[in-house]
Amino acid sequence: MATVQEPKLLTAEEYGRLPDDGRLTELVCGRIVEMNRPYTSHGYYMNRVAALLWSFVEQNKLGRVVSGDAGVVTRRDPDSVRGPDVAFYSYQRIPPGQLPKGYWPASPELVLEIRSEDDRWKDIIQKVGEYLGANVLIVVVIDPVSQRVHVYSADNEAMILNSTDSLTFPDVLPVFEIVVNRLFE
User: Fold this and answer.
1) Which residues are paired to 20 by β-bridges?
2) Element (H or E) spanning 122, and its range?
3) Over the stretch 70-127, which tens digit does the pLDDT of each residue have?
4) 109, exposed or middle or buried, with CB in 10 Å at 0-12, 13-18, 19+?
5) What was the pLDDT predicted at 2?
6) 1 in a structural domain
7) Least buried of 75, 78, 114, 172, by fewest C-beta within 10 Å?
8) Cβ contact 107:155 at 8 Å
9) What range does the domain containing 36 cover?
């Protein structure tokens, strides 16, 4: 009787050393998962959100904003590496100065994901839970289709903000405030 050998699970470090073959992937529980290339509007909203957040963070010298699916280790043994659209790391988690090599040794305080037209809520909620489990304090899902923002944290009920509501992060970025409809301009 022949036995089927399971493929070897990758660590985050092994995944990070793989050659770039042009595919958009994440590492989920040690396995490479291929993702669809998002539509152009996804990139627009991602850059818009990153620019608005970066401007505030830079002006107040609070930390760093990363975007473009930069890898965040969300789980170990087996490892998962997710690529948030936008993330904020305070200087308390990643101090000023030279940037760490590889995947950064701390999770961001804030992750923002742009929901693509064909993203399934089931998959989004799974990813939100993974971020929160990795010590991300706030996860925001921005939905351009409904023009609403979903805000998740480990200690509070999820909030859904409409276009005239204000998006704030008092525990992470005090005094940051933006009316939701500005994200969709």
Assistant:
1) none
2) helix 121-133
3) 999 999 999 999 999 999 999 999 999 999 999 999 999 999 999 998 899 999 999 9
4) buried
5) 58
6) no
7) 78
8) no
9) 12-184
Q: Report pLDDT digits (tens) over 30-57.
A: 999 998 888 899 999 999 999 999 999 9
Please state whether beta strands 159-161 and 72-75 pair in parallel, antiparallel, or not at all (unpaired): unpaired
Domain count, the chain: 1
How many Å apart are CA 9 and CA 76, to the nearest integer? Answer: 11
27, 83 Cβ separation under 8 angstroms: no
Give pLDDT tens digits for 156-172: 999 999 999 999 999 99
Average of per-residue pLDDT across 12-22: 93
Cα(138)–Cα(170) distance, integer angstroms: 11
Tell me whether residue 5 is in a domain.
no
Q: Which two tokens stand for residue 33?
A: 């998962």
In this prediction, residue 7 carries a pLDDT of: 76
Cα–Cα dist 37/2, whole Å: 38
User: Contact at 8 Å (CB) between 148 and 161?
Assistant: yes
| Residue 81 domain flag | yes
CATH of the domain at 163: 3.90.1570.10
Structure tokens at 60: 């107040």
